[in-house]
Amino acid sequence: MLAARRVVVKIGSSSLTTTAGGLDNARVDALVDAIGSCRKAGVEVVLVSSGAIAAGLAPLGLKRRPKDLATQQAAASVGQGLLVAQYAQSFARFDLTVGQVLLTAEDMIRRAHHLNAQRTLYRLLEMRAVPIVNENDTVATHEIRFGDNDRLAALVAHLVHADLLVLLSDVDGLYDGDPRKPGARLIAEVSSAADLDGVTLGRAGSAGVGTGGMSTKVDAARIATAAGIPVVLASAPNAANALAGDPVGTFFARTGRRAGTRLLWLAHAATPRGSLQLDAGAVKAVVGGRKSLLPAGVTAVVGAFAAGDPVDLLDENGHAVARGLVNFDAAEIPGLLGRSTRELAAELGPAYEREIVHRDDLVLLRH
């Protein structure tokens, strides 16, 4: 299929655990066997693994994934240790060391945190360890969550400049309808968005231990392929075949080129904390001219955000045209509206002679 030298593999909760919520050691070993063979062939692997919350259910006497955030975080704090311990034991059979990397969306849009995470992953790979990435469920709030590890995997693949993303689940590929119903057809390859016309995408499975579904996997494939990374979607039992390049599951061809990593995270991982309304001139400058947003172009402020938070930039019709990291608190901005930076610097000091959102911290949103 591809001469991939660095691969990101994502596995879902339902493929690692029992319906009762405990880890299925045989399933973990089967996945590690596939990755171990891949490593023996000289391919670097980053594993994005769900399962922390699911692994913590049984030890805490929980029968299903809890709905409230505090209990989810409690389950994750118990399950994350169990999950990584099982991986460490299983990878030891191949004389491989694992390293745990827990991320939040906010980690990845703050420049210093983003670069640190990237350096850590690169160094683990250089030292021949297997990075095991998961969302930091024990501290992430609803506002700073990725929402599912499929999207996280796509962004990690871009972060480490992977050659391939393999999404493993309990379904053996993308079907044009519900695969449990007669007549559903496996889609072997997706070359463009047109190949998905008329396809019905399902939600999370009936096991009740995961958060994703086919729609999140297709969204992750879109993110990765748009950034120049091909994707294979296959079932967990077919992991070895998928990593060996055998024609299994669904192959998503790359549709774009690699873009700035941090801006990709800003577009796809950040949840806006508020919004700024722009006038027509500012929309033209930001969208058409790829310029920074100045105070003179802002007409209204929505939300209670702080400096450094992600905010959406809205056109005159209220449509989000861009997202960026704002340089001022929401409470400060009303006093800056419609004024030039030179005027503001003269009145308030040199700290106000700057952009509301700098172009290096701004990404355009596609519709």
Keywords summarizing the entry:
globular; 367 residues; eight-stranded mixed β-sheet
Characterize the biggest β-sheet.
8 strands, mixed
Which of globular, elongated, flat, extended, rod-shaped describes the shape? globular
Question: Helix count, per DSSP?
Answer: 11
Number of strands: 15
Strand content: 15-25%
What is the H-and-E element order? EHEHHEHHEHEEEEHEHEHEHEEEHE
Head-to-tail CA distance between termini: 32 Å
General description of the model:
By secondary structure, the chain is an alpha/beta fold. It has 11 helices and 15 strands. The strands form 3 sheets. Strands 3-4-2-1-5-9-10-8 form an 8-stranded mixed beta sheet, with helices on both faces. β1, α1 and β2 form a beta-alpha-beta unit. α1 crosses α3 and α6 packs parallel to α7.
Write the layout of secondary structure elements.
Layout: E1 6-11, H1 25-40, E2 44-49, H2 52-55, H3 69-91, E3 98-103, H4 105-109, H5 111-126, E4 130-135, H6 149-159, E5 164-169, E6 174-175, E7 186-187, E8 189-190, H7 214-226, E9 231-235, H8 239-244, E10 250-252, H9 261-268, E11 274-278, H10 280-288, E12 298-303, E13 310-314, E14 320-325, H11 341-348, E15 362-364
Parallel strand pairs: 1-2, 1-5, 2-4, 3-4, 5-9, 8-10, 11-13
Antiparallel strand pairs: 6-7, 9-10, 11-12, 13-14, 14-15
Briefly characterize the structure.
The chain is α/β, with parallel strands linked by helices.
